[in-house]
């Protein structure tokens, strides 16, 4: 079956109202290879894959699966034809177990009762076959993001999918988890499955994909063999211009301490320390990168700084003022901006318009409020200006945030936070799900905040991003800072050792100097 055609798309078009999301797409997907789909945020990649998985129906054009024309009127139709999709934002029931999530909607029965033993055995066999070790009895809300990704993959394999679609699957994974996932993709292709991979991470695509189709504003602009192209060429095809992600660190005068953490401890709901005695200072005009494997206290630390979680002991000073356990609004008014880890859960109110989401923190302030009434014209004008400035792909500022692509949702949050000119910016995975053009823009915005004398705490699971942007690096492991140094004084290998919990004698710089 290898290299035979799995899916043939012919002149496939999808129109929403007057907006053409996909414009006469031609594309051939083969069994036995990884086929990458590349494009800017809002280029139409996810819409195209949603038609393949039966979520959307085409406006016109044809889909063939295994050489036969098909009509995909529902996700069930796609599943019946062996098509499975792992979405960018996981579709898991948090308080269900791994097993319950995998079999949901396809439960094995025996005498009318759930045959849990059969399901357990099948899941264990699949996880061993594909190197996707999971605990079937673990609750989803108690496992890491990387493990949740494995659960999503097992969901489609459990349903005998031989055409697998992955939408930004590495966006929230650590480097180790990314390497494991790419190996899984290759294993799937080696077993004659067709793998479609949507990603903005060009190095990852080069490592695993055989072919890449590039989409720009809903149209196919190129299909290339990966062996015959470079990442620079792919980036230019994607955005239509050369991309430069290098950042030039000009020397900044030493600024005042704008954010100071003094022996901060944060507890979880079981009263166990998730952040344990952390002290760290950030000065104006510097970017401090916080490196660490996901789940080592980064999220809890950010929530404490931004007022979303209580501080059990220690103090947090912002601009010299004690803001320990202050309210979220007080912290915002003190000049703290926050790009959260989960844009849909913590960053946006999805059923609300772009206008409302842009002004969640400022609606009560002039010029957006006038004697207790909203000044809607000022909010609209401001939203339209930010949409243009940050290149947010939307039909209108009246569009609901939940209707934007993931990358454009991220740009909406970044536009809102940076437009307030925060003196302290907490940026958690700020380029998650963004294309290289948008990454270039966001990096420049973060560097501009540094140049303006602001302090930036950058939490990212992209070690390259931390090394590229940061002046200093601090490393967190099991809720404690295990070391740090100026970025030019520490190697990738040393950072990796500290991320694993090893303390290195001369890498203890966690205070501004």
TrEMBL record:
The keyword Signal does not apply. One of its GO terms (cellular component) is plasma membrane. It is a peripheral membrane protein. GO terms for molecular function: ATP binding; ATP hydrolysis activity. The keyword Transport applies. PROSITE patterns: ABC_TRANSPORTER_1, ABC_TRANSPORTER_2. SMART domains: AAA (SM00382). Residues 7-242, 259-503 form the ABC transporter domain. InterPro entries: AAA+_ATPase, ABC_carbohydrate_import_ATPase, ABC_transporter-like_ATP-bd, ABC_transporter-like_CS, P-loop_NTPase. Keywords: ATP-binding, Cell membrane, Membrane, Nucleotide-binding, Repeat, Translocase, Transport. Its main location: membrane. It comes from the Bacteria. It is found in: Cell membrane. PANTHER family: CARBOHYDRATE TRANSPORT ATP-BINDING PROTEIN MG119-RELATED, GUANOSINE IMPORT ATP-BINDING PROTEIN NUPO. This is Carbohydrate ABC transporter.
